[in-house]
Amino acid sequence: MRSAASFKLGLSHSADTDSAWKVEAVKQVEYHVIAARNLFETENAQLLTGCSAAPLTRGDRRLLVIDSNVDRIHGDRIRRYFEHHGVAASFVPMRADETVKEWSSVIRVVDAMNGFGIDRRREPVIAVGGGVLLDVVGFAASVYRRGTPYIRIPTTLIGLVDAGVGVKTGVNYGMGKNRLGTYAPAIATYVDRSFLRTLDDRHLSNGLAEILKMALIKSVDLFELLETYGQRLIADNFQGTSSELDTAARQVIAESIHLMLEELQPNLWESCLERCVDYGHTFSPTLEMEALPALLHGEAVSIDMALTSALGFLRGSLSREDLDRILTVMKRLGLPVWNDVLSTAGVLDAALADTVRHRDGRQRLPLPVGIGGHHFANDVTNEEIASALTLLARKNTGLANGEVSVTKVAS
Length: 411
Known about the structure:
Elements: E1 11-13, E2 21-23, E3 32-36, H1 46-49, E4 61-67, H2 68-84, E5 88-94, H3 103-116, E6 125-129, H4 131-143, E7 150-154, H5 157-163, E8 171-173, E9 176-180, E10 188-192, H6 201-218, H7 220-235, H8 243-264, H9 284-291, H10 297-315, H11 320-332, H12 347-358, E11 365-368, E12 374-377, H13 382-400
Parallel strand pairs: 3-10, 4-5, 4-6, 6-7, 7-10
Antiparallel strand pairs: 1-2, 8-9, 11-12
């Protein structure tokens, strides 16, 4: 019998039994988020050489899963790119929105990979689309042959700053938001804001909700950028048609991504469940699913942030002036602070209870401390939530009437 000392790389064997082993292993995780511009212009070689872990050369094959709307607008240009560079690209256009973010969509991608005869290691799947498509393709890639590499090319603002930069994949199950999923980093994400030029204002605002989230919990400087330039960036589709707007667009997107990765990198697998990036994601998963398809993801997050900002005000961690600023910026960015689903009896209590289960028995509720700071609460009561909801309803009426004053209500 070999002794424990003879086992290497973290494998140990109990000396007093022949049937107990302990295996310890570490797998390094590395992925790339790469700023790009006009990625599919034929002379742009960034997709070919921008990531050493996923080179693309003449004679290669690639399977592209592409949002059907993106394919309609950009598909010809993308096809010309691959033809120009001698890459045999097979396209799978598919509808990708929250109503079809489900297991059947994952199976469709798996079927496409299987039919393509994809090489398990050398032919990464390329996902081109918004956050829903990136989640679906990432999930499919993670379960096909126990892990197939993939590349993300987000085409929406929420994809650029949120869905495209982390490691989580997932689809909805029943009434549960992202109830099925995996942790599966893409090899690379190419962040190309030129795709945003064809995005409508609502979907730009949808992405700005996730940027505002990072500002409210981590960066007053980013908040002030949104306060100053947010409306103009929407009107400009983040294209930088002036040097001032180009600088602002680059700063807003880059800072948002940096702040997100700064939080994710030391906690990729969520071993710590106190995550400030969960701000706006306590009540929003339930609200989004209850209101489906009326609310986009970022819109549900915005309503959650408005409610928890009101809660922070009532708890004394947010001043009257800061609450006014936050809700006013939300309005300027085209984001809702209210939806009638909030009035559904018991919906917020149920949402908090579901989040407590998700966060291992504690609320771990991120609340703002001023603008740019946060703390975690574990003692929020249903009565406090009801008071915050009353305040938010009054504030929503005030916003509609052009008012910004806030008065405390009894808790």
